[in-house]
Amino acid sequence: MMRQYELVERVQRYKPDVNEALLNKAYVYAMQKHGHQKRASGDPYFSHPLEVAAILTEMHMDEATIAVALLHDTIEDTTATRAEIDDLFGPEMGKLVEGLTKLKKLDLVSKKAEQAENLRKLLLAISEDVRVLLVKLADRLHNMRTLDHMPEAKRLRIAEETMDIYAPLAGRMGMQGMREELEEIAFRFINPEAHRAVTARLAEIFERNKGVLTDIEKALSALFEKHAINAGVKSRQKKPWSVFRKMEAKALSFEQLSDIFGFRVVVDTVEDCYRALGAIHTTWSMVPGRFKDYISTPKQNDYRSIHTTIVGPSRQRVELQIRTREMNKIAEYGVAAHSIYKDTGGKTNGAGHAISKETNAYAWLRRTIEQLAEGDNPEDFLENTKLELFQDQVFCFTPKGMLIALPRGATPIDFAYAVHTDVGDTCVGAKVNGRIMPLMTELKNGDEVEIIRSKAQVPPAAWESVVVTGKARAAIRRATKNAIRKQYSGLGARILERAFERAGKNFTKESLKPVLHRLARKDIEDVLASVGRGELASTDVMKAVFPDYKDERVTQAAPKQREEGWSKIRNAAGMLFQIPGRAARKDKDQPRDGAVPIRGVRGDLPVRFAPEGAVPGDRIVGIVQPGTGITIYPIQSPALQAFDDQPERWIDVRWDIDERTKERFPARVSVTAINAPGSLADIAQVVASNDANIHTLSMVRTAPDFTEMLIDLEVWDLKHLNRLLSQLKDNSSVSDARRVNG
Ligand code: MN
């Protein structure tokens, strides 16, 4: 175990003016608090925070971060409290340690929630203070290094979490060394066979090419010597995980991977980078399309380097990275590399310990993470930083913190279906980050989505073109199909009930069972839906159930008979369609007695008005339109003649309107006006001043002197319509105004 003075010395090596007191105090406090606690490996527990601190010294972190590393498990695992740490080390240190405590608690929650919470809390912690994340990453690295000691059941979970969350985070912070080691260990636990195979092949290839590699290294060194460039040349071997991932992603075999080997050229100055590049390119030919200059255009994580691939001395492709020492350090340690050099203006807290201010690197990281969390211009960010985790996905949360991964462009509807098909099917609205948003809203990273549900909901078919996930699309298709089928079978049942009643029979669905084969339908629902769709005539069903049934169609049509027929149906069935509207009225010819609202069909059956409209005050009738629903006609409409011989399609409807709901109803009128400028304006004026709306207006006939037009109006009721018609007639521009079919 590292001794107290050793730790101080390590920090002193890169930070001579180190706050020794802080380090010593943290060392002693943490050691005492952890006492005799042991790790799974049997080592004293204190060895763990000490190793985490050591990892951070390799990254040249400031003493505040090192001290936090020493203390990082004290609140969670010992008798230490936030207040005690505040007292001893100051509130800023206390806050950092508490941040780590929070993160640690998340390691314990169940699989899915854990991922979500980790990710979110991590992001939150980062935007608060990046040092929490740096310590957490070092903590995770040490835990990964000692993963063998964990119970087997936990290993895979921790390894997967590392691969999914921590390694990419390290990469995003520019800490390639950390990232590669995390990936390497995680790979070994997640896919041991692949790891073994790839590692063995890499070693084999390395062994076989040793001579070639030495030749290339020598050739490069000689070249730089010739051009008087001070450069270090190092061969670089691809890591097993990155090789494996490339093979998987591009479906390549090992042999097809051309860039397993590469060289890194480290020089003194930026100028030397370009001189080295010039020397290389004039000596060997470059492979087109592989040149990238991240010096003139650094990556967003501050990575700078020149990348090129050449056809080398032995005719094989050689990948080269050219960079300065400073750039190399940043490439290796990323955000951590910035901290030490820029850590000058430290703050002093009450306990006399320097707490470094946020450096530029921290500010940069906070910015980019915020950007990521807010989804602000995520494409740019992702493109420039290579985030494997987030490239084509958005991560959103349920109100309970569960993480839902969706493809980019996903909507709350996709989200709902991703949670559960039932949630999708009953989704009527969504709150995104606490605000009601349209269901078409494109979700962004970090959005918290709450789905508002209604049992009565049927997903609109139009959603199918809005969603981006296959699951949602398939579910919507299925649900709308079911809903339509249900409508049709409801309609079919209604039609059959009427037909049976007319014949003096009692309709039950069960009575269809014995005749299914004769109707060539597979089940009862199928019969009902076929009748509803108009594919199967109700009389055919009657004949199947009652072989001696005689078709008694009404052959004569006269207004009086229609009215009787209508009345009879009403009395027999006592049905009522509710049409939302205005003032309820009692018509003394049509007592309400025996009229009951239809239940179960309610919203399922679409109700519409005939083209010429109907308004409260009109006596009305509903005509069942197989396949579409019910159309409301004024009883005097000549169009009703067409249905005279199908009495089972006639349905008793009546206005059932509530004084509180203000609604206008359609009525079509024909107006003949003088063909003069301003006459149209006159008509519009009369309509408007009478509190009516023009829905559509079309010219039917235009003569030199007169114009005939059809106007679809929206009015309150019959009285309102009649008043409007008489006022139109009174207008000097109008020669005639009358209701169509009224
Ligand atoms: Mn720990």
Strands ordered across the widest β-sheet: 1-2-5-4-3
Q: Report the CATH C-level class of the largest domain.
A: Mainly Alpha
Mean pLDDT across all residues, rounded? 77
Number of separate domains: 6
Distinct small-molecule ligands in the complex:
manganese (II) ion
Tell me how many strands there are.
Answer: 22
What CATH architecture label of the largest domain applies? Orthogonal Bundle
Q: Report the end-to-end length measured between terminal Cα atoms.
A: 100 Å
Strand content: 15-25%
Secondary structural class: alpha+beta
Uncertain stretches of 5 or more adjacent residues: 108-113, 339-363, 370-391, 553-603
**Quick one: CATH superfamily of the largest domain?**
Hypothetical protein af1432
What coarse outline follows from CA principal-axis ratios? elongated
Helix share, percent: 40-55%
Radius of gyration: 40 Å
**How many H/I helical runs?**
27
Walk me through the structure:
One of its GO terms (biological process) is response to starvation. It is built from 27 helices and 22 strands. It has 742 residues and is of the alpha+beta class. The protein has 6 domains: 4-192, Hypothetical protein af1432 (Orthogonal Bundle), CATH 1.10.3210; 198-333, 2-Layer Sandwich (Beta Polymerase, domain 2), CATH 3.30.460; 360-460, Beta-grasp domain (Ubiquitin-like (UB roll), Roll), CATH 3.10.20.30; 480-545, no CATH class; 552-655, no CATH class; 665-739, Alpha-Beta Plaits (2-Layer Sandwich), CATH 3.30.70. The strands form 7 sheets. Strands 1-2-5-4-3 form a 5-stranded mixed β-sheet. A hairpin with a 2-residue loop joins strand 10 and strand 11. Helix 4 (63-71) packs across helix 9 (130-145), helix 10 (152-172) packs antiparallel against helix 11 (176-190) and helix 11 packs antiparallel against helix 12 (192-226). The termini are far apart. The structure holds manganese (II) ion (MN). Residues 48, 72-73, 139 line the site of manganese (II) ion.
